[in-house]
Amino acid sequence: MKEPELLSVADFLYVLWKRKVHALAVFVFVILCAFVYLSVAKKTYRLSGSIYVGRFQTDLLEEGEFVAQKLQDYSFIKKALDTNGVELDIPIHRFQKDVEAHVLNEVRKIEDVGIVLLTVEYKDPVKCYEIFKALTDQLIREHQFLTDDALNVLRSMERFFKVNEDQLMESINRDEAFASQNLRGPEQGQAWPSHVLARYTISEKREFLKQIIQDRHYLKLEGEAATKSFNTRLSAEPEIPDEHIKPRRAVVLVTAAGAGAVLGALLALLAELIETQIKPRYHAAKRRAEAR
Predict the structure, then answer these.
(1) Among candidates 28, 16, 20, which has minimal Cα distance to 253?
(2) Residue 269 covered by a domain
(3) Do residue 232 and residue 94 come from a single domain?
(4) What gap in Å lies between CA 98 and CA 84, rounded to an integer?
(5) 78, CA 20 to 30 Å: which among 141, 194, 246, 251?
(6) 24 plus 113 within the same structural domain
(7) What's the mean pLDDT in 56-85?
(8) Residue 4 counted as domain residue
(9) Total domains, the chain
(10) How far apart are CA 268 and CA 9, in angstroms?
(11) Where are the transmembrane segments (predicted)?
């Protein structure tokens, strides 16, 4: 039995040259299909931006990891889109996978520096921008509420201490006026215990007033420090993306060229195999059958 001969490189190149019309036709066809795909395929746009998590005094309003998780949470996305009146063409649970957020800690690897990178992908560039703005605006609003609440607590405590301070000052003034008018020294016939008790009471109230003033001053400093805090903000104002990221023209064309070359070579080899192997055997078998 004759062993089958292996196809050498020279034979392969000869076949390709011989059947170049077939190979070229397949190659051109695949390239044309790639251009058709690029013209009709829905384009995907991407918008990314860094978010600086706000601080109240020296503390982050929320940890960066928590902010990143919140931005990808279904309920938060839905609330943000509903609040800003943004309607999607697909269900939110399907769009959810196109929202990515993670913490950036290049400066300090251990400590949370509160920088979150948010990336949104969508089929429409304007809608992509609107979604990004809706998510970031919602986050900024929520963090502003946290800052306002903390400031209100400080201010209410400061007012509380101020009221107590005023009331205690009035009480001390009344006690001193009463003591100066009604309490006399021993040389005037007044008993010592009453005189000492009155002065002791006034002294205690003054000590308490001093503590209240110190506490109120501390709260005032806290409030002034809070005014130097900052709310959550974007590193830069986002813009509508003008270039799509999918499908990538170069990637599609390179892939199509490679696929067209492989398919063209396979078709050329198949055509050669049919012409040199299958057809002769078929005709030989047919002639033997007719001879019988």
Answers:
(1) 28
(2) no
(3) yes
(4) 19
(5) 246
(6) no
(7) 90
(8) no
(9) 2
(10) 14
(11) 20-40, 250-271
pLDDT band at 187 (very low <50, low <70, confident <90, very high): low
- 71 and 135 in a single domain? The answer is yes
Domain assignment present for residue 153? The answer is yes
63 and 37 co-located in one domain: no
Q: Are residues 24 and 125 in the same domain?
A: no
Tokens representing residue 127 in the block? 């809608």
The answer on 56 and 32 residing in a single domain is no
Tokens 């309607």 locate to 87
- The mean pLDDT value of the chain amounts to 81
The reply to whether the predicted model has a pTM over 0.70 is no
| Backbone dihedral region for residue 60 (phi beyond 0: left; psi -120 to 50: alpha; all else: beta) | beta
- Using left for φ > 0, alpha for ψ between -120 and 50, and beta otherwise, residue 85 falls in left
Could you list the residue range(s) of the whole structural domain that residue 252 is in?
17-41+247-262
pLDDT in tens, 92-109: 999 999 999 998 865 555
